[in-house]
Amino acid sequence: MSDQFAKDVATGLGTTPKTLPSKYFYDAIGDSLFIKIMDLPEYYLTRAEMEIFTTQTDALIEALGQTRDKHFELVELGAGDGQKTAYLLAGLLDEGYDFTYVPVDISKNVLELLEARLREQLPALKIMPKVGDYFQQLNILHETHTPRALLYLGSNLGNLTDEKSALFMGQLAKYLKPKDRLVLGVDRIKAAEIVLPAYDDASGVTAAFNLNLLTRINRELGADFDLSAFRHAPIYNEASGVAVSYLESLKDQAVHVSKLGETYAFKRGETIKTEISRKYNREIVANIIHDTPFEISTTLLDSQNYFLDIIMLRT
Description:
Layout: H1 3-13, E1 18-19, H2 28-38, H3 44-55, H4 57-63, E2 72-77, H5 83-94, E3 99-105, H6 108-121, E4 126-127, E5 130-131, H7 134-142, E6 148-152, H8 162-174, E7 181-187, H9 192-195, H10 205-221, E8 230-232, E9 235-237, E10 242-249, E11 253-257, E12 262-266, E13 271-278, H11 282-288, E14 294-301, E15 307-314
């Protein structure tokens, strides 16, 4: 059992309204479910960013601002399965760049799968996986003077509020040197009929992914959540560009978490907020980085204008 997991669950269930951190979606079951989500017909995000990485690889490589005669680190935060990044890695190898790929993820399971696949697909690749918190790992890398390009893809920034995003980007800049680059992938604001199905697919995989968080609490903290008494309940506000995922209690009930020694009451219709998924335009991103040493140098869009990869220079 993770002490931090226990503390975060206690804090989240003990507040009003109740919340749970989205980072705890990703145990072995959650990892598997999210891979399925990325293949769903409703989940356009991965396909849109994949299109950018497969059809605009040369533009991405140029935007990284690296030279073939100098070694650099390509660091990916929240690497996941690395399917998109593999195209960039192959392109860099084909072009003769000297680099080490450093995938960072909270899930050891995901990184082991990623490393095994890339060693088979790209045997010439130098890879140095790092398990853990973004900033802990960046702090270790910061001790070197190696030029660095950072990937933060999949609209992962969207799990934060704009205020927290601004703080996050400011922190990120501290671990980069002047002239280092950041590739930030963000989902663009779109109509509700496009966005909402991505978080509420017809086959119920996303619902299972959300509910698995309760299964994890049951398993690791000795809770007695009845999953049939909760439902996945996402919403999307087109005006604000924010999607939110909730778990909604279907009845008045009490849930005991033995390893916390606490019982939590739920009213019928009461929710646990598990994730926000913010959507962006260039202006919103510009406002978020306004007080940071980042400046936007290049933007790349998919053919449907669904997704935006923004390349930034650390000044």
